[in-house]
Specification:
about 260 residues; alpha/beta; eight-stranded mixed beta sheet; about 15% strand; elongated
C-alpha cells in the first residue's frame, strides 16, 4: 500500500509520522523547501507535484487548508483520482462535494492538535474502512460518526483543547491569587486533571458522582461549587461549544459553496 499526504503542515506531518509505523510507502507533498526538507528528514519521498503523488498512491490524505484545495484541483486531472481512496482532513468540505470533484471513494477525518504527540481524538465518516482506520489509529483514538455530526465534533473535540487549556490557565491564575507560585501550581494542576480523567475512565463513572465524592458538608468544595453555580460556569461552557458549533456550520457552508 502507498499513502500520499497532500500538504504536510502541522496535522499532515503528525499523520506522516504516524503512518511510518505501518511500514507502508509514503509520499509527502509541500510547497516550500522547508517543508520538503522536513519530509525528507523522515526518510519519506517528498515532492511538489501533487498529481504525481496522487497517481502513485492507493490512499490520498488531503491535509491542505480548504481554501487552498482549488489550487490542487486546478493542477490535478480528474482521472488521477479515479480508483483511489481519498481521506479529507479539510474542514467544511462535504463528502458529496469531494466525490463530485474527484470521482474517488471519499472519507472525512477530523483529528485534533493532540495528533502531534500521538494522542489525537479523530472522527471518521462515514462508511467504515479498515485501512483508513488503521492509518488514523497511528495518531490516537478513532471514532466513526455520521457526517452530520462533524460540526459538533469540530466544536467539542477540534476546538476542545483550546477550551481546556483556557480552563487550566484559569486554575493556575486562581492558584497565583491564593499565593502559590505559578509553575508549581501549573504542574500540579496538570497532574490533577490527568488523574481526574484517568479516574473517570477507569471507574466508568459519571462526572457528577465523582463531584459528589469530593464534596463534603460545609467543606471547601461546596463553597467553590456555589460560586461556579452563581457565575454560570456550566452555562458559559455550553454556550462556548454552541458558538463554536454554529461557526463551524457557517464556515462549512461558505467553503462548500466555493466548490
Amino acid at each position: 500500500m502507498r499513502v500520499s499526504i497532500i500538504g504536510v503542515g502541522k496535522i499532515g506531518y503528525a499523520i506522516l509520522k504516524g503512518v511510518k509505523s505501518l511500514n507502508v510507502e509514503i509520499i509527502g507533498t509541500g510547497r516550500s523547501e522547508e517543508t520538503l526538507d522536513k519530509i525528507k528528514k523522515e526518510g519519506v519521498e517528498a515532492t511538489r507535484d501533487n498529481e504525481y503523488a496522487i497517481k502513485k498512491s492507493d490512499i490520498i490524505i488531503l491535509a491542505v487548508k480548504p481554501q487552498h484545495f482549488h489550487s490542487i484541483l486546478d493542477k490535478v486531472s480528474k482521472t488521477a483520482w479515479e480508483g483511489k481512496k481519498v481521506v479529507s482532513v479539510m474542514a467544511g468540505i462535504r463528502i458529496s462535494t469531494l466525490t463530485r470533484l474527484t470521482n474517488a471513494k471519499v472519507y472525512r477525518a477530523m483529528p485534533n492538535i493532540n495528533a502531534v504527540i500521538g494522542k489525537a481524538t479523530t472522527a471518521l465518516a462515514e462508511e467504515r474502512d479498515e485501512e483508513v482506520e488503521r492509518i488514523f489509529r497511528t495518531i490516537g483514538n478513532v471514532y466513526w460518526i455520521p457526517e452530520e455530526l462533524f460540526d459538533a465534533w469540530t466544536a467539542i473535540i477540534g476546538s476542545g483543547p483550546a477550551f481546556v487549556a483556557e480552563i487550566i490557565d484559569a486554575f493556575a491564575l486562581g492558584a497565583v491569587a491564593c499565593g502559590m507560585p505559578r509553575e508549581l501550581a501549573y504542574q500540579a494542576i496538570l497532574d490533577m486533571v490527568e488523574g481526574t480523567v484517568y479516574t473517570l475512565r477507569k471507574d466508568k463513572t459519571h462526572p457528577v458522582l465523582l463531584r459528589d465524592q469530593v464534596t463534603t458538608p460545609a467543606g471547601t468544595t461546596i463553597r467553590g461549587l456555589m460560586v461556579m453555580e452563581s457565575e454560570g460556569i456550566k452555562s458559559a461552557i455550553i454556550k462556548t461549544i454552541e458558538a463554536a458549533y454554529q461557526r463551524s456550520m457557517v464556515i462549512g457552508k461558505e467553503i462548500d459553496k466555493m466548490y
